């Protein structure tokens, strides 16, 4: 009878040890998964910061391009005003230059060119589902 009891005790001890190992493995796996999720979230937030920095750089560039395009438009108006009264510049020649210069100003203008759309909305990255 003691052999059966000893066998039963050994069996129960092995079951308990297996349960403990399984629980420890589950805890390690959950910890690993948690760390991986946290790392992915850190990377996602770092990417959003990077995209925001690029958005700010784009915004500043748009401001600079807008100023440059406005400067060109002011130049065109000043040149027209100065040259309209002169007899040595044909009106067609002045109009052709004016059209060309204004087209160049429009190309620079971030509103007219559509460049402003690249940073109109904040950057978003999807949140990882669990």
Account of the protein in words:
With 130 residues, the chain is mainly alpha-helical. The chain is 80% helix and 0% strand. It is built from 3 helices and no strands. The two termini are 53 Å apart. The relative contact order is 0.10.
Assembly state here? Answer: single chain
Helical stretch tally: 3
For the record, give the distance between the C-alpha atoms at the N and C termini, rounded to a whole number.
53 Å
Q: Summarize the helix and strand pattern as letters.
A: HHH
Q: What portion of residues is helical?
A: over 70%
Q: By helix and strand content, what is the structural category?
A: mainly alpha
Estimate what percentage of residues fall within beta strands: under 5%
Largest sheet: none
Coarse shape = rod-shaped
Q: How many strands appear in the DSSP assignment?
A: 0
Low-confidence stretches: none
Mean pLDDT over the full residue set: 91
Radius of gyration: 36 Å
Task: Identify the notable features of this structure and list them briefly.
130 residues, mainly alpha, 80% helix
Quick overview of this protein structure:
This protein is mostly helical and 130 residues long. 80% of the residues lie in helices and 0% in strands.
């Amino acid at each position: 009878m003691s052999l059966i009891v000893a066998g039963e005790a050994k069996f129960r001890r092995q079951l308990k040890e297996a349960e403990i190992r399984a629980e420890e493995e589950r805890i390690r796996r959950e910890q690993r998964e948690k760390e991986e999720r946290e790392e992915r979230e850190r990377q996602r937030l770092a990417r959003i910061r990077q995209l925001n920095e690029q958005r700010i750089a784009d915004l500043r560039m748009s401001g600079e391009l807008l100023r440059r395009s406005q400067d060109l438009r002011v130049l065109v108006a000043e040149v027209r005003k100065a040259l309209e009264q002169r007899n040595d510049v044909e009106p067609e020649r002045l109009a052709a230059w004016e059209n060309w210069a204004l087209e160049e100003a429009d190309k620079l203008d971030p509103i007219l060119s559509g460049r402003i759309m690249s940073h109109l909305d904040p950057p978003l990255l999807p949140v990882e589902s669990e």
